[in-house]
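Q: what sequence does this backbone want?
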């Protein structure tokens, strides 16, 4: 049984790809293995970054559409399999992540991850990069009834942590993160260093330019957010 958190404890919900990690260097070779079967031009890193944000399934569909083709479910499964075998060969944390996570934990924040990525893969990546221990919960998109931008994904992540929405702030780089937070009534911080266009953060409570900005911004928005959300 999960024990409820104290009312005074605050929780920071992190997206994964584009927020904590740059996963594109491992996603590109995986999708290009499938592209090569059809003699389609390889996806570049810049293209891949622009297609990120809604999980591997949508990424594959968008990548094929960019080449004027349609990905079948078998193609998407093949891509996911290739990626799942090597999800953290070249993937790296964004600058400042370990030190900032430590600073947040030291000042009483409880941290969780809410990602549309497979939960097992997300957990594996965080372990390989040496930061899994900072997170009380990792809630992947394949273990919930609905994924972001559906707010039920955030609700489930909070439930697993024994927390409620009024204790939380969402941090993410894509509109799905901001929308899910708004629908749940949770303030959000847009990660401007990630994959999403800056205008995706127009409805966020705050915009962070770099990861190390987060401690100060989190303290601003919870408690007593100064901007509507």
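A:
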């Amino acid at each position: 049984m999960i024990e409820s958190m104290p009312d005074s404890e605050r929780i920071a919900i992190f997206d994964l790809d584009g927020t904590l990690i740059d996963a594109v260097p491992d996603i590109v070779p995986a999708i290009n293995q499938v592209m090569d079967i059809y003699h389609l031009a390889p996806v570049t890193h810049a293209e891949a970054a622009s297609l990120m944000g809604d999980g591997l399934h949508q990424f594959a569909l968008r990548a094929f559409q960019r080449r004027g083709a349609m990905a079948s479910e078998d193609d998407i499964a093949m891509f996911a399999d290739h990626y799942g075998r090597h999800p953290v060969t070249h993937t790296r944390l964004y600058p400042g992540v370990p030190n900032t996570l430590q600073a947040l934990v030291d000042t009483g924040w409880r941290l969780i991850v809410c990602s549309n990525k497979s939960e097992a893969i997300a957990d594996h990546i965080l372990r390989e990069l040496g930061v899994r221990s900072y997170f009380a919960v990792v809630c992947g998109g394949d273990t919930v009834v609905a994924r972001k931008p559906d707010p039920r994904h955030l609700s489930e992540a909070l439930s697993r942590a024994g927390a409620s929405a009024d204790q939380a702030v969402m941090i993410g780089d894509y509109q799905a993160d901001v929308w899910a937070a708004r629908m749940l009534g949770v303030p959000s911080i847009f990660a401007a260093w990630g994959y999403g266009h800056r205008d995706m953060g127009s409805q966020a409570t705050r915009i962070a330019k770099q990861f190390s900005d987060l401690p100060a911004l989190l303290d601003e928005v919870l408690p007593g957010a100064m901007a509507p959300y």
